[in-house]
Amino acid sequence: MTKGRLEAFSDGVLAIIITIMVLELKVPHGSELADLAPLLPVLLSYVVSFVYVGIYWNNHHHLLHATRRVGGGVMWANLHLLFWLSLVPFVSGWVGEHPDASWPAALYGVMLLMAGVAWLILVRAILAENDPTSALTALVKDDRKAKVSTALYLAAIGAAFVRPWLADALYAGVALLWIVPDRRIEAKLSAE
């Protein structure tokens, strides 16, 4: 499979994930602005989840742009990532419906943690398929953001059982950490 097909397939799956999330949003029964108040937890959960899917889509694009070859291991690693991301609508909906509950907040963190692990597996699979002296190898060698994110996810999962709102704040903080893609990849590829 070419990397173009892999990217197109992934884009399609991510588009479906976002579509499912938006279709789960319910219209308020009244016509006043105050009628939105009961829906705020669902809307906030949707916004954070939309941002996460967007972050993965953006970084996936940059990662594949720096990739030269795609083999079977990369395809399976990519499917592994898409599996965890496909759970976003379900877990996001659960968190939105029960914003003060511990288990939905914790499961949201588990899903995010596993998507992060799947991302690292995908990166390692791509590195194994490509030239070890490539620009990509040099750029992902020391990924501090991934280490910080993992620590924050683990802290948030624990915090979900004490203060679910704190877990939600940590998840939003990790999203802010990743919202800007790694510009080193673009700069390095432009220089080559």
Number of domains: 1
By secondary-structure content and strand pairing, the structural class works out as mainly alpha
Total beta strand runs: 0
Radius of gyration: 18 Å
- Indicate the overall shape: globular
User: Portion of residues in helices?
Assistant: over 70%
**Low-confidence residue ranges:** none
Largest sheet: none
Give me a quick take on this structure.
The chain is an all-alpha fold and 192 residues long.
Question: Could you please describe the fold and organization of this structure?
Answer:
By secondary structure, the chain is mainly alpha-helical. The protein has one domain. Helix content is 76%, strand content 0%. It is built from nine helices and no strands. α1 packs antiparallel against α2, α2 runs antiparallel to α4 and α3 packs antiparallel against α5. The longest helix is centred in the middle third of the chain and has 28 residues. The model has no long low-confidence stretch (mean pLDDT 90).
Supply database-style keywords.
mainly alpha, 192 residues, 9 helices
Topology:
Elements (H helix, E strand, L loop, with lengths): L2 H21 L16 H26 L6 H15 L1 H10 L4 H28 L5 H6 L3 H16 L4 H15 L4 H9 L1
